[in-house]
Write a structure and sequence with these properties.
Number of helices: 5
Distance between the termini: 37 Å
Strand content: 25-35%
Shape: globular
Helix content: 10-25%
Oligomer: single chain
Structural class: alpha+beta
Largest sheet: 7 strands, mixed
Order of helices and strands: EEEEHEEHHEEHEHEEEE
């Protein structure tokens, strides 16, 4: 019989968040020391396999399964029942992350979506696990959850990926310097805490990356008829950063 999820983990589920910091944190900034991961530019996504039925949900509690059929199909094939993953859905366009391609999924009709997904398929990058075999793992310290996640990911194939992680802060600083050339926004730091719905992690964005939203209206200022908004690709002051291979390998660095 396929494992079902515990009642407390029926979707949607609130997720852990990260507090923005302006400088590289010290070694004792979080309990148990620092684990650094790349901060992907995509949709924060929780993936649920409840008795063999896979659904994807946003941080805001909206279901994403319809607009991410490729990611959902891969998770249904490779994720055991009774598992909940926390991660990021991303789209690679050549050697860069393409957030606009994700946004396009939200305004594409059901009939046109398969062609769009075939042209620019979505990937799911897992960085935490909230349930395994129908058991809630949120009370397990991060190091234990990471071990469970690595065991789950041992035989994964694209488009499922395990987020890279390191306790080597010199390597993390190299990631912060070089990975933004691939669209990575910066780093997320995690300690040894259990998973909580609070800002228990830290995030550091690359200094040459800004978030921008462009907005426009059509019609008179007092009564516009149409509004448009768009988040452009991240802008950088320099474009000479060495590109890395896509971080879709398994294990620790």
């Amino acid at each position: 019989m396929a494992e079902s999820l515990p009642p407390a983990l029926h979707p949607p589920v609130a997720v852990a968040l990260a507090k923005l910091v302006k400088t590289f944190p010290g070694p004792n900034a979080l309990p148990g020391g620092l684990n650094a991961e790349p901060k992907f530019d995509g949709f924060r996504t929780t993936a649920f396999n409840d008795g063999g039925t896979v659904t994807l949900w946003s941080r805001q509690g909206k279901e994403l399964t319809r607009i991410l059929p490729d990611a959902a199909a891969a998770l249904a094939e490779q994720l055991p029942p009774g598992v909940v993953l926390d991660g990021e859905t991303v789209i690679w366009n050549r050697d860069r992350l393409d957030f606009d391609a994700l946004l396009q999924r939200m305004v594409t009709s059901r009939a046109a979506l398969p062609a769009l997904a075939n042209e620019l398929p979505a990937s799911f990058v897992a960085f935490d696990v909230l349930a395994v075999a129908g058991q809630d793992t949120r009370g397990v310290p991060f190091t234990g959850r990471r071990e469970l996640l690595e065991e789950l990911a041992r035989d994964w194939a694209a488009p499922l990926h395990l987020s890279p992680i390191t306790r080597d802060m010199d390597l993390a600083k190299t990631w912060l310097r070089d990975l933004p050339a691939t669209g990575i926004e910066g780093l997320v730091f995690k300690g040894s805490q259990p998973y909580e719905v609070a800002r228990i992690w830290l995030k550091l964005k690359h200094k040459d990356v800004w978030d921008m939203v462009c907005a426009a209206v059509i019609g008179p200022a007092r009564g516009p008829t149409t509004g448009h908004h768009r988040r452009p690709a991240h802008r950088r002051r320099t474009e000479d950063r060495r590109p890395f291979d896509r971080p879709d390998y398994k294990g620790r660095a």
